[in-house]
Amino acid sequence: MIALLAVPVSANSTCPPDTLAWTETRLFFGRDIGDVGEVTAEQWRDFTVAEIIPRFSDGFTVLDGTGYWKGSSCKAVLVDGGCEKSKILLVQYPPTIEADAKLKAIASAYIKQFSQEAIMRSDSPVCTQFYSKK
């Protein structure tokens, strides 16, 4: 059983007209796999295809990062101040129980597949607007 501690944030109900009161979530995935090495670009791509795209097919953003984790995997601080490479999933969505379950499923799958100690989640209320050719 993998324990995930998160309480979804309610989106801002005071958004301006023509914007959506959504939630923005960031999931932080460490890429270190202990003595095995790190999650490769190919493994991350496969994880994205299998776990993220089916759950958030409307869109998301992935950023590269370097993080510091006080867990057992962080044995040396790198030149850029972190101890391991990371991926940051950024997704905005209408706040629902279903969306929360999707995020928890993604985090659980990553923890299991890549033997992680934890995945960090950060939620913020946002006012979202889309611009298009119309």
Search tags:
134 residues; alpha+beta; 4-stranded antiparallel sheet; 2 helices; 22% helix; disordered N terminus
Description:
The protein has 134 residues and is of the alpha+beta class. The chain has a domain at 37-124. Helices cover 22% and strands 28% of the residues. A 4-stranded antiparallel sheet has the order 2-3-1-4, covered by helices on one side.
Task: Summarize the entry for a quick read.
This protein is α+β, with helices and mostly antiparallel strands. Helix content is 22%, strand content 28%.
Topology (SSEs and partners):
Elements: E1 20-30, H1 41-52, E2 61-67, E3 84-93, H2 97-113, E4 120-128
Antiparallel strand pairs: 1-3, 1-4, 2-3
How far apart, in Å, are the first and last alpha carbons?
48 Å
SS class? alpha+beta
Query: Strands of the biggest beta sheet: in what spatial order?
Result: 2-3-1-4
Shape: elongated
User: What is the overall pLDDT average?
Assistant: 86
**Care to count the β-strands?**
4
- Give the oligomer, counting copies of the same chain as homo and different chains as hetero: single chain
Biggest beta-sheet profile: 4 strands, antiparallel
Q: What's the alpha carbon Rg, rounded to whole Å?
A: 16 Å
Task: Give unreliable regions as ranges.
Answer: 1-9
How many helical elements? 2
**What letter string, H or E per element, gives the SSE order?**
EHEEHE
Portion in strands: 25-35%
